[in-house]
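Hi P.,

Sorry for the delay on this. The queue was packed all week, but I finally got your sequence through. Input first:
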Amino acid sequence: MWFSWRPKKAIGYTESSDGIHWKEPQVVLAPVPGSEWEADEINRPTVIKHNGKYMMWYSGQMKPYLEDGRSVLGLAVSDDGINWERRELPVMEPDQAWELQAVMCPHVIFDEEEARFKMWYAAGCNHEPDAIGYASSHDGIHWVKFAGNPVLEKNPDCLWEQHKVVAPCVVKEKGWYYMFYVGHLHEERAQVGLARSANGISGWERHPQNPLICPTQGEWDSVAVYKSFVLKVGNKWMMWYNGAAYEEPIWVLEQIGLAELDGPELFG
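Then the structure:
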């Protein structure tokens, strides 16, 4: 697991044999002092293994959580998933009107059938972005954004996602692209939903039982559940997600939880 280690403003790494009990984490990618785009904080990584190499796309942030800040996407490559060599320049920057000053929360897959990388990402406000876009690439470095972005936006008629939708995680399964995403009731209240598309770009159909998981009153995830990562393990699905709760004096404490779905069908 590669994860955002907020107090260290860096990306951490840990391992587990069962997805429940995890080893002591370590920092594997830290901010670069003096950088114009990743000096303040780096976070929200997505990692795949391609041609024997680990590839990590991540958010590089200046003035994170402030609307006069900026977020872009960087790329690092590793032989072992621990020691990383990063590119000097970002591989994606906000350059479309809807993206405002921030692109972040990338999720990347390599589509074997089409022999190209596919990315879903969030963009907009620098604190929590506003909507989800799509881009593709033949090398993971040079990206072409979909001209019709964003591909998933908030639904003003649905209370739980009336404010914004962010943080995509996409799984290609049995001819469908399944997107787990975060819907915001307001800036701080969030829950996880699911949508599917035949091509991963258009025609997204939201799950009729959305949201799938929600904050639990009085518990460690009482404020928000968000930024999920989903993996099929055997005949079930496992979802790791961030949970947040208000805790003095740090305001919000984020921790990682696990939710499971028995059976192989996501839209069953």
